[in-house]
Amino acid sequence: MRREGGFTLIELMVVVALIAVLATIAIPSFFRESSRSKAESEVAAMFGELKVRQEQYHLENGAYFSTGASETDSWPAAPDRQKQSIYPLPASWQTLKVTPAEQSVVCTYVAIAGGPGDAAGNMATSPPFNFTVPNANWYYVLAHCDMDGSSAIDGYFFSSSVDSAIQKVNPSR
User: Fold this and answer.
1) CB count in 10 Å sphere of residue 98
2) In terms of C-beta density within 10 A (0-12 exposed, 13-18 middle, 19 or more buried), how is residue 145 classed?
3) Distance CA 65, CA 92 (A)
């Protein structure tokens, strides 16, 4: 009697179980990375727009412009990973002539400006950003992102007139 070649039902069930385990690990990681990359590209575009508008305002007025009274005075008011409309723009953004490329955003944004001797906000001057106020007019842009739907750990992005590199805190959450 000749034996047929092939897979047994047990072998097939083990393979299906392994695929299921790998999928439960990979799928959340994929969505987390997708959310992170979307937020980072949004932040880069918004920071670029705010920086250009700050420099234009500085050329026209001799000073930079704050879009909010403090670091918590951001627009939109709270981050939302489901994307929210950025319109209508607040008056401060209109003064800067900000024209966002995106109509909907997941992060909130604020630009804080000052001159020599003016105090910067706590988040900017604390680690890891460690912004030091220069002896000239300055500004910094801060983004607050909630990429996981939980306010327990949020992501923050920072860039300034002193250092145009975008610094990140908890960007993968």
Assistant:
1) 21
2) buried
3) 8
Q: Classify burial at 140, counting beta carbons within 10 Å of its beta carbon; exposed 0-12, middle 13-18, buried 19 or more.
A: buried
Are 42 and 147 contacting, i.e. CB atoms less than 8 angstroms apart? no
pTM assigned to the model:
0.79
CA distance 98 to 170: 27
The tokens describing 34, both together, are 């997708």
Q: Cα(first)–Cα(last) distance of the chain, in Å?
A: 61
Per-residue pLDDT of the chain (173 residues; tens, 9 = 90+): 677 777 888 989 999 999 998 888 887 777 666 666 777 889 999 999 999 999 999 999 999 999 999 999 999 988 887 888 999 999 999 999 999 988 999 899 999 999 998 999 999 999 999 999 999 999 999 999 887 666 677 889 999 999 999 999 886 54
d(CA 74, CA 86): 11
Domain ranges for the chain: 9-169
Cα–Cα distances in Å, from 9 out to 6, 12, 15, 22, 169?
10, 5, 10, 20, 49
Residue 170 carries which side chain, given as an amino acid letter?
A: N
